[in-house]
């Protein structure tokens, strides 16, 4: 983040009224308590409307075909201490949003607004930026384009937070699950958990900028895919600070004794990004997925092989990642691993895994590792990689008011890559 605040003598002039705080229940426009001087946000010169449109889950989650989301008008939230108010410019559509909407994940906030791949412009700031667990002060400026991802809050006090594993914090909170997310015209997010997107939207080191719709999927599909790749162990010993790709490729191959072979099961928004990271790092990538168009996209991006999820790849895998939320795929994926191989499970939700046969699936020191969220360090490393080494994003734009249809299409496998809502 930029290490300065914009100040504005007429901070409150940008608000037509004072809506409810972001975590309060929806209320009629203008019904919220008046702000005091101590809590008044710093705002830009642009007028911020009194109300906005947003999607929210109905009283009970349900099958997406039954339209469990509703389109409502509600007050624009105000940023509290340490928060920023974002005007949503784009929001990626993630399978986790589908899990929240359909009730696969337990309800953490009633009638929540989904969305956690949010590209937003900072339009107002709360009174305090805060300091993270590492002692870094994260500040932003009005007008900066930032990303709000899945991870929204950690306690900064527990052993996991202090041990570099804040993704395991038992007090963690998430955008679009614990707090209202980006399926809206505005949202509030803690500044400490935002990522500046100016290096990507302004052009990376190779001079090729991302667009709003292509940068949005990087914020979860990209970051979680990167975390899942790290969990395979293939990136052990690789530093992503001032990354030298040639040196990284050599180090990975030397440690294994051969060019690494990675299998990806499922090939949607996250996998098609992860594949490109793996290819850039010198890996041979085999894709196992049911969709014919997804298989074609995999081969177009440079993967060596693409076939059905239950087929065997043409050679043993050093590691594999399952992106599809289908527990039955765990068995063929384990069979495909070479001795000592690691299977990484990328999803937050998965159907039950069938009974494993020890000799067939786990012997020879094979491992299964789950993935839970990500750390902010993962996010910074991955976005720096994406800025330096352009990733092709297969993005499919939908209007914000078509979010429910986008989720239906996601569930039906109607598109490759990732859907992105464009307000």
Question: Helices and strands in order, then pairings?
Answer:
Blueprint: E1 42-43, E2 51-57, E3 69-75, E4 83-93, H1 95-102, E5 118-125, E6 145-148, E7 151-153, H2 159-162, E8 173-174, E9 186-190, E10 194-196, H3 198-201, H4 212-215, H5 221-231, H6 245-256, E11 261-265, H7 269-280, E12 284-288, H8 292-301, E13 305-307, E14 317-322, H9 330-336, E15 337-345, H10 358-362, E16 367-370, H11 376-388, E17 395-399, H12 403-412, E18 418-422
Parallel strand pairs: 11-12, 11-14, 12-13, 14-15, 15-16, 17-18
Antiparallel strand pairs: 1-5, 2-3, 4-5, 4-9, 4-18, 5-6, 6-10, 7-8
Helix pairs in contact: 5-7, 5-11
Characterization of the model:
With 423 residues, this protein is of the alpha/beta class. Helix content is 24%, strand content 22%. It has 12 helices and 18 strands. It has helices at 95-102, 159-162, 198-201, 212-215, 221-231, 245-256, 269-280, 292-301, 330-336, 358-362, 376-388, 403-412; strands at residues 42-43, 51-57, 69-75, 83-93, 118-125, 145-148, 151-153, 173-174, 186-190, 194-196, 261-265, 284-288, 305-307, 317-322, 337-345, 367-370, 395-399, 418-422. Strands 1, 4, 5, 6, 9, 10, 17 and 18 form an 8-stranded mixed beta sheet that branches. It has a 6-stranded parallel beta sheet with strand order 13-12-11-14-15-16. A two-stranded antiparallel sheet has the order 2-3. β17, α12 (403-412) and β18 form a beta-alpha-beta unit. α5 crosses α7 (269-280) and α5 (221-231) packs across α11 (376-388). The radius of gyration is 22 Å and the shape is globular. The protein starts with 41 loop residues before the first strand and ends with a strand.
